[in-house]
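hey so u asked for the seq, here:
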Amino acid sequence: MRLFDTHVHMDDPRYDADREELLHGLAESEVELILNPSANMEEARAAVALSEKYPFVYAAVGVHPSETAGFSEADCAELLELAAKPKTVAIGEIGLDYHYDDTDEETQKRAFARQLELAKEADLPVIIHSRDACADTLELVKASGVRRGVVHCFGGSAETAREYVAMGFHVSFTGVITFKNAHRVREACAAVPLERLMIETDGPYMSPEPHRGERNEPAFVRFVAEKMAEIKGVTPDELAEITFENALRFFGIEERQ
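ran it, structure tokens below
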């Protein structure tokens, strides 16, 4: 089995105590590659540095919607510089998050639209975060003309998943798919063609069963693959290989090796 955790925040402080141990142990868990996205400028620099240190780590650079206060053109210029690094393969995670009452929606929209433009300038796909903001996220993506992207940690409806697929996007699922009451997420997974699926942990968040409540880590992506295989009617090995190849093509990693 070959597994690709396409979204794990390895620079998160919750990994500080054993980050090296986790990374060196990935092969034993059959996790061959990981993608480390960023949520702010500091993390963008850290993601690139980690990708340069480990051959099996790739980076994405971007500013998460919850971190967009103060987002500037100077940040955009630096993101473009980081995007040009050999192992930076996407702009992300970017998007909209209206979950909290004090959300500045207009600031988030401006930063999201600008980073969608950056993705076109850098000729890279985007990793999209959308939480309680489905309609606005879709509207801005459509207006941007960006058609190379993945909606990560998908929690929307099957109808929304189909709409993204029709636009050319991929859809990625986390350990939420294993939760007992996550019926809508499993329905969305069932609606996405195999060739448009990717898997992720979103570590250190979203730990799957049987590790729910614990710190998530790349090795746990296996549980996402197993549940997704059950939903799609294929073996876990087949699902792992399909999503591995999907991610290689999506991030253009085959072309970089």
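The first helix runs from residue 19 to 24. The beta strands are 3-5, 31-36, 57-61, 88-97, 126-131, 149-151, 170-173, 197-199.
lmk if thats what u needed
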